[in-house]
Amino acid sequence: MEHPRLAAGIFQRLRRSPPRADAGSRTPSGASPALSLDPKAYADALLGRGAKLDFGGALSRGLDLLKTDYWTFVGVTLVMTLVLAAVNFIPLAGLLLTGLLTGGLQLFFVRKLRGERPELGDCFVGFSSMTGPLILGSLVSVVLIVLGVICLILPGIYLAVAYLFTFLLILDHKLDFWPAMEVSRRVITANWFMMFLLVIVAAILSSLGTVVLLIGYVLTAPYFYAVLAAAYEQLVGPRQA
Question: For the residues of 198-219, what is the DSSP string, one character each?
Answer without folding.
Answer: HHHHHHHHHTTHHHH-TTHHHH
